[in-house]
Design goal:
251 residues; Spore Coat Polysaccharide Biosynthesis Protein SpsA, Chain A; 7-stranded mixed β-sheet; 9 strands
Length: 251
């Protein structure tokens, strides 16, 4: 009797993209919400995603980011340090170092990242081997702040080889969207258009808004998700006014 070799599970790692050089809200990655930094909240929420094998902070070698690395060590978060502006290089090298087959990219301004949504997206990605780039904001239908990009290592390798100009090496998602014939793009859409909501943290008003969410919903024994936030905001619509003037006109 010949036993078939069991296929190995592709390794998925989440890369939390962060650096201290933000201009709109300085040092936002270490801003506190309900006693924890944005990085801590993202790390905690990602740890509940069943489809993710490893979580890594991807920051730069610039000295100002030493404090981020120190913080990562304190909370038990693995890290990689690479280029400040060359984001393709930073993510690709981090993925190779941690032997990733698939990369989930989360930016440090998204403390409300949704574990349930991530599990759903990664499961779809695992089943469809032809996807080169998976997103949920092209066009956006979810609140800004739940943005996720998923790429196989092969796409990062292709981008690293093809893109030479510094602009697209930092903003590589634009390059992908500008070249739909080169990449198989999958966009997860919400059944209801929620793109008018702003749940990211780029400005002081955003921080106030997110703090209100955590004050109302954060529990030690449970991670709240998008549906919980939507229910809360439906009962407390005035909270949406806190950062409504900062809504990005991205449609």
């Amino acid at each position: 009797m010949i036993l078939k070799k069991k296929k190995s599970r592709l390794k998925v790692i989440a890369l939390i993209q962060a650096r201290m050089g933000s201009t709109r809200l300085k040092k936002k990655a270490l801003k506190k919400i309900a006693g924890k930094t944005l990085i801590e909240h993202i790390f905690r929420r990602l740890k509940t995603v069943r489809e993710i094998e490893e979580i890594v902070l991807a920051t730069s070698i610039n000295k100002e980011n030493d404090i981020l690395v120190k913080h990562a060590k304190r909370i038990g978060l693995k890290y990689y340090r690479g280029s400040e502006q060359d984001l393709i290089s930073r993510l690709y090298q981090a993925a190779k170092k941690f032997k990733a087959d698939i990369v989930v990219r989360i930016t440090a301004d998204c403390p409300l990242v949704d574990p349930k949504l991530l599990d759903e997206m990664i499961k779809i990605f695992r089943k469809n081997k032809k996807i080169d780039f998976m997103t949920n904001n092209y066009p956006p239908t979810l609140p800004h702040g739940l943005d996720v990009n998923i790429l196989p290592l092969s796409t990062l390798k292709q981008l690293d080889s093809e893109i030479k100009d510094s602009y697209h090496r930092e903003w590589f998602t634009y390059y992908i969207m500008e070249n739909p014939k080169k990449f198989q793009i999958y966009n997860l859409k919400s059944s209801t258009d929620l793109s008018g909501m702003r749940w990211t943290v780029d400005y002081p008003e955003d921080l106030i808004f997110v703090r209100k969410i955590f004050e109302a919903l954060d529990r030690k024994d449970k991670i709240f998700i998008m549906t919980d936030i939507l229910k809360f905001l439906k009962k407390n619509p005035k909270i949406l006014k806190i950062n409504e003037k900062r809504i990005d006109k991205i449609k």
